[in-house]
Amino acid sequence: MEHSATPEDEQPDLTTYGRVGFCLLYGLLFSIAVMLAGLLYGALQGRSASAHVLPLDKIPARLGSLDPSALLDLGILLLFATPLAGVVVAFEEFLRLRDLAFALITLVLLILLLAGFIVAFH
Fold this sequence. Notes:
The chain is mostly helical. The chain has one domain (20-120). The protein has 4 helices and no strands.
Protein backbone atom coordinates (compact mmCIF):
# COMPACT_ATOMS: atom_id res chain seq x y z
CA MET A 1 0.00 0.00 0.00
CA GLU A 2 1.31 3.40 -0.96
CA HIS A 3 1.56 6.19 1.58
CA SER A 4 0.59 9.61 0.31
CA ALA A 5 2.06 12.65 1.99
CA THR A 6 -0.34 14.87 3.84
CA PRO A 7 0.12 18.61 4.26
CA GLU A 8 1.08 17.97 7.90
CA ASP A 9 3.91 15.66 6.74
CA GLU A 10 5.25 18.31 4.36
CA GLN A 11 5.07 21.26 6.78
CA PRO A 12 8.44 20.62 8.53
CA ASP A 13 10.13 20.27 5.12
CA LEU A 14 8.62 23.53 3.91
CA THR A 15 9.76 25.29 7.07
CA THR A 16 13.29 23.93 6.64
CA TYR A 17 13.43 24.86 2.97
CA GLY A 18 12.01 28.29 3.79
CA ARG A 19 14.62 29.01 6.45
CA VAL A 20 17.52 27.82 4.31
CA GLY A 21 16.16 29.72 1.32
CA PHE A 22 15.71 32.85 3.42
CA CYS A 23 19.31 32.61 4.61
CA LEU A 24 20.66 32.14 1.07
CA LEU A 25 18.52 34.84 -0.52
CA TYR A 26 19.17 37.50 2.09
CA GLY A 27 22.86 36.60 2.31
CA LEU A 28 23.09 37.13 -1.45
CA LEU A 29 21.17 40.41 -1.32
CA PHE A 30 23.21 41.71 1.62
CA SER A 31 26.51 40.87 -0.07
CA ILE A 32 25.36 42.59 -3.27
CA ALA A 33 24.32 45.66 -1.24
CA VAL A 34 27.76 45.83 0.41
CA MET A 35 29.51 45.53 -2.96
CA LEU A 36 27.26 48.20 -4.50
CA ALA A 37 27.96 50.47 -1.54
CA GLY A 38 31.68 50.04 -2.19
CA LEU A 39 31.26 50.83 -5.89
CA LEU A 40 29.05 53.85 -5.25
CA TYR A 41 31.27 55.20 -2.50
CA GLY A 42 34.31 54.80 -4.73
CA ALA A 43 32.53 56.56 -7.59
CA LEU A 44 31.54 59.44 -5.30
CA GLN A 45 35.18 59.79 -4.27
CA GLY A 46 36.26 59.73 -7.92
CA ARG A 47 38.18 56.46 -7.47
CA SER A 48 38.01 53.50 -9.79
CA ALA A 49 37.46 50.01 -8.47
CA SER A 50 40.65 48.32 -7.38
CA ALA A 51 41.99 45.56 -9.60
CA HIS A 52 43.62 43.73 -6.70
CA VAL A 53 42.17 41.94 -3.71
CA LEU A 54 43.12 43.09 -0.24
CA PRO A 55 44.69 40.55 2.12
CA LEU A 56 42.19 39.41 4.76
CA ASP A 57 44.14 40.96 7.62
CA LYS A 58 44.03 44.39 5.91
CA ILE A 59 40.26 44.52 5.38
CA PRO A 60 39.22 45.58 8.94
CA ALA A 61 41.67 48.51 9.04
CA ARG A 62 40.70 49.60 5.54
CA LEU A 63 37.00 49.39 6.45
CA GLY A 64 37.79 51.68 9.37
CA SER A 65 39.26 54.21 6.96
CA LEU A 66 36.26 53.83 4.62
CA ASP A 67 38.23 52.34 1.73
CA PRO A 68 35.83 51.41 -1.12
CA SER A 69 38.03 48.43 -2.04
CA ALA A 70 37.57 47.04 1.45
CA LEU A 71 33.79 47.27 1.06
CA LEU A 72 34.00 45.42 -2.25
CA ASP A 73 36.19 42.70 -0.72
CA LEU A 74 33.88 42.42 2.31
CA GLY A 75 30.92 41.95 -0.04
CA ILE A 76 32.76 39.16 -1.84
CA LEU A 77 33.63 37.48 1.46
CA LEU A 78 29.99 37.71 2.54
CA LEU A 79 28.99 36.15 -0.77
CA PHE A 80 31.40 33.26 -0.14
CA ALA A 81 30.13 32.85 3.42
CA THR A 82 26.45 32.71 2.42
CA PRO A 83 26.41 29.00 1.44
CA LEU A 84 28.21 28.17 4.67
CA ALA A 85 25.51 30.01 6.61
CA GLY A 86 22.86 28.07 4.66
CA VAL A 87 24.47 24.77 5.63
CA VAL A 88 24.57 25.86 9.28
CA VAL A 89 20.85 26.72 9.15
CA ALA A 90 20.07 23.38 7.47
CA PHE A 91 22.09 21.52 10.13
CA GLU A 92 20.17 23.28 12.91
CA GLU A 93 16.86 22.51 11.20
CA PHE A 94 17.68 18.81 10.77
CA LEU A 95 18.65 18.60 14.44
CA ARG A 96 15.42 20.36 15.41
CA LEU A 97 13.44 17.85 13.35
CA ARG A 98 15.51 14.98 14.81
CA ASP A 99 16.41 13.87 11.29
CA LEU A 100 19.74 12.43 12.29
CA ALA A 101 20.66 11.02 8.88
CA PHE A 102 20.40 14.41 7.18
CA ALA A 103 21.98 16.12 10.19
CA LEU A 104 24.99 13.82 9.88
CA ILE A 105 25.27 14.41 6.12
CA THR A 106 25.01 18.17 6.70
CA LEU A 107 27.62 18.00 9.46
CA VAL A 108 30.04 16.24 7.09
CA LEU A 109 29.37 18.91 4.46
CA LEU A 110 29.93 21.62 7.06
CA ILE A 111 33.27 20.09 8.07
CA LEU A 112 34.34 19.87 4.41
CA LEU A 113 33.37 23.48 3.76
CA LEU A 114 35.21 24.67 6.87
CA ALA A 115 38.28 22.64 5.88
CA GLY A 116 38.16 24.25 2.43
CA PHE A 117 37.97 27.74 3.95
CA ILE A 118 40.88 26.97 6.28
CA VAL A 119 43.02 25.68 3.41
CA ALA A 120 42.08 28.62 1.18
CA PHE A 121 42.90 31.24 3.79
CA HIS A 122 46.29 29.84 4.83
